[in-house]
Predict the 3D structure of the following.
Amino acid sequence: MGRLRKDTLLLTVCLAQFMVILDISIVNVALPDIHSSLGFSDTGLQWVVNAYTLSFAGFLMLAGRATDLLPRRQVFLVGVGLFAAASLACAVAGGQGVLVGARALQGFGAAVISAASLSIVTASFKEGAERNRALGLWAAMGGVGGSAGVLLGGALTQAFSWPAVFIINVPVGIAVVLAGRRIIPQPDAVASERRLDLPGAVLISGGLTAIVYGIVRTDSLGWGSPGVLGPLALGLVLLGLFALVEGKLATDPLIPLDVFKMPALRAANLVVALLFAAMFGMWYFVSLYLQEVKGDDALLAGISFLPMTGLVFLGSATAPKLVARLGVRITLGIGMTLATVGFLVLATVEADSAYEVAILPGGMLAALGTGWSLVPATIVAVKGVRPEQNGLASGVVNTSRLVGGTLGLAVLTTLATSRTNHLLGGGTAQLDALTSGYRLAFLVGAGLCLAGGAAAIALLRPRPEGVPQTA
């Protein structure tokens, strides 16, 4: 495959990945418009976001394994087509149930796209500098999509109303399908004797869905309520049964457990989970601070994210060169340290602080650190994995990112809300109480990034000669 064709392939799959990550955040600024248009209650409105996140996280592992057992080009194209169709259903939804159901279908399509796109990148580029460059651009879509969603969501909602944040996916999806049919190569024939492990698929998807469901319910119920503890306990039981089935009972397991014997893969996924537990919180709380404390409208708040979006992309684009010069361990350490410092700067914000004092410098440092961390972590996660397990590795790293981010956001939101309510009860002014809650979230985010950096330095040490790197 020539260089131009490879670049076109990379652009195609990265555009699809950008689209699915964008849809995690682009809806946030449209929620007030959706609330008034469809008559959602305050507690019901969260399911416009949660239905997507639940479905996305719950089916990532199933989607990743499907790309190993089925032709990955067809899996990718079906995922994009399903995502575009579900987006159209969201845009024309005339009732609450239709919108929430379409968002869940969108999340399933997003899981398929995310797993298949990384599998295609891993299989299409040679391990080393070529693959690292491709992974750098693919990883950039995660950070850029998350932060760009605030800007695009604000602009589209303000100009055209809330259906526009969904309808924009339709032409993009059609373009990706048309390009993908021409540019993504047909893989080698899939072994006909391989079968998808349906019991394992049900258990892993059900377990992850139950855990994420319990996490997102903390916003309205609190961590100690039966409505949270019940789903979390059910999720843990299902995951325990999944481990039993995969390790002892399945003849062709969905996830061969020996893949987790790879220490580098375990370390990389831990770092990704900690990083995104902090970064989901940064996007969320910075957006709230700009709109609820500083009084910015959705469009202005989105514009304020532009420097951060640019630095995530810059960091991801330059990370492969840093990896080539310094190695993944040092690059990860530098990236996570930058992210830690960025969160510490954000934690100095006051209710009357100017944007340039804490939000801009802190957000830029955290964004650059994200780019320099996510790329080497992704490189480590897929390096040395057998070709027939590319989809599996991509599903694991994507699941770590999404579940880590969801769990982190739930924890940070609970802590920030508790701090704010405590101060309001003591007579603190509302804006000061809100800002104090955000500061606590940023401090905890700094701790998560620091822990991720320490894990990278401690767990990714060079292995002695003769010690195998893979399972």
